Amino acid sequence: MKLGVFTPLLAQLPLDDVLSKLKSLGISTVELGTGNYPGDAHCKLSMLEDASALKEFQRKLENHGVSISALSCHGNALHPDKALAAQAQETSRKTILLAEKLGVSTVVDFSGCPGNSHEATAPNWVTCPWPPEYLEILNWQWKEVVEPYWVKHAAFAEQHGVKIAIEMHPGFVVYSPETMLRLRSIAGPSIGCNYDPSHMFWQSIDPIAAIRILGEAIFHVHAKDTQMYPVNLSRTGVLDTKPYTDELNRGWIFRTCGFGHGAEWWKEFVSTLRMCGYDDVLSIEHEDSLLSSEEGLTKAARFLDEIVLKEKPTAAWWT
């Protein structure tokens, strides 16, 4: 297992500077945004049509001894606004094609969320089965929008030798292990998850237990923590819509690894990942509103460096 970094937290720096900074932290693997929500500061889809730019991009990575764990294009390809949906879909499609050219096997995305009908203008995330119209909306979303798009898009990815890792995120139709496995059962084995434990914590899902549920469906992993504040949770509940910068009053906030849960928890997390078949990259994602990008990245890298399982065990004498 090894550490990587999701580079939007360093979007203000050119790629060469990003790679140099990460190498100084002992990190030689990156996850790069290609558009949609992460932006494309360090990886342009225009390289698909520009062979010289693609070659120069690859040269930079090689010169720094850096590999790519995933290309990420988190977006809402199911948005009821047809123009927004088309843009997200095209970005995802081109990201898969670029991943194929680069020899990158994983593309990270969101599942998306439709509206409540074909006439809707905004997404509608259903969170309860009653009154009955909510369940009707949810059933319509999956049958009419989610299934047709993802069956086709998963087949496209498979044709190009790429797996799509869906990040389970509230606000979209896939937000839990159950909804993740539902989409995978519909769209096939080229669909799995980008496992971010921070989104499990605040839904009261045990992230370590969820690893055992997801198993081989885990394609990529984000390293990000969450801190819960019981003093506020009794008032807010977990569906807290206050801005992330209102830390004092929120029921929970995202934290740099080690600031929400300690080393003992993270050791069990990485051990369970390996036990269940994942022994690849932990991609550090910084969204801690109490720490700068520089401080958050440095602290996460130093904290996790002592925790990741870097060597695979050899056969024991009794086997």
From TrEMBL:
<feature type="domain" description="Xylose isomerase-like TIM barrel">
    <location>
        <begin position="20"/>
        <end position="306"/>
    </location>
</feature>
<dbReference type="Pfam" id="PF01261">
    <property type="entry name" value="AP_endonuc_2"/>
</dbReference>
<protein>
    <submittedName>
        <fullName>Sugar phosphate isomerase/epimerase</fullName>
    </submittedName>
</protein>
<dbReference type="InterPro" id="IPR013022">
    <property type="entry name" value="Xyl_isomerase-like_TIM-brl"/>
</dbReference>
<keyword id="KW-0413">Isomerase</keyword>
<dbReference type="GO" id="GO:0016853">
    <property type="term" value="F:isomerase activity"/>
</dbReference>
<dbReference type="InterPro" id="IPR036237">
    <property type="entry name" value="Xyl_isomerase-like_sf"/>
</dbReference>
<dbReference type="InterPro" id="IPR050312">
    <property type="entry name" value="IolE/XylAMocC-like"/>
</dbReference>
